[in-house]
Amino acid sequence: MPRLRDPPRGRERQRLRALLTKPPAEAARGLLGQILVSGRGRQALAVRIVETEAYLGQSDPAAHVFHGRTPRTDPLWGPTGTIYVYFVYGMHHCLNLTADRPGVPGCVLIRAAEPLPLTPLPRLSCRGPGRLCRALGIDTRLSGSNLFASDAALTLRAGRAPAEVKVSPRVGVRLAAEERLRFFDPASPAVSSPRFARPRRRRAAPAPPRGERA
Which ranges of 32-94 would DSSP assign to H, the alpha helix? Predict the structure, then answer.
């Protein structure tokens, strides 16, 4: 893992920056298989992204920025590679990466990852956004920092895309819940539940009164 301990350079950096300037749904799909590296030197932890969700900015009712800009969401207007971390339910941190053109507050939630070989983390320690942040030591102190900074505590490195990508509605959202903006590698055991989109049940039609035909 030695080569992963530093931020990306040259063409690798250009490709990753270009990925994060794409619209959030494209960026979310493209981030599958890329490598997150937390920490530096011998303490670095490297994990492969296997599940993401796209949030489309101010037009998306499920996005934090739907009701406007606040001090908490300000990083989402930052330059390419800006990190946005929020605290939810009084117990979990969630990691997001800005996506779309600079100044357009789209983002990608990193929902799950799997540790690379030789990374001293349990196999399923990054299964779900809260577990991922705990395993990698990510909290709101990272919000507003940049993946591509020379002193980045969290950076992104190029990986290999999965052989197949599955798509489903986002998990745990009430607004725009039908939007298919969750992307995941179906071959990875680290993908969080539900692994596949469940078909909606149709309500049974009421029985007609006696003496009438349906």
Answer: none
Which residues 6+ apart lie within 8 Å of 47 measured at CB?
A: 35, 36, 38, 113, 114, 115, 116, 119, 121, 126, 132, 135, 136
pLDDT digits (tens, 9 = 90+) for 194-210: 655 444 444 544 555 55
How far, in whole angstroms, is CA 159 from its chain's centroid?
15
Query: Tell me: the pLDDT tens digits for 87-143?
Result: 998 889 999 999 999 889 999 999 999 999 989 999 999 999 999 999 999 999 999
Cα–Cα dist 35/21, whole Å:
18
CB proximity list for 170: less than 8 A, separation 6 or greater:
53, 62, 176, 177, 179, 181, 182
Residue 203 pairs with which residues in a beta bridge? none
**What's the rounded Cα separation, in Å, for the pair 53 and 18?**
18
Contact 116, 125 (CB under 8 A): no
pTM (2 d.p.): 0.88
**Dihedral of alpha carbons 63, 67, 70, 75, sign:** positive
Bridge partners (DSSP) listed for residue 22: none
Q: CA 7 to CA 39: how far, in whole Å?
A: 11
Closest CA to 79 of 115, 110, 104, 111: 104
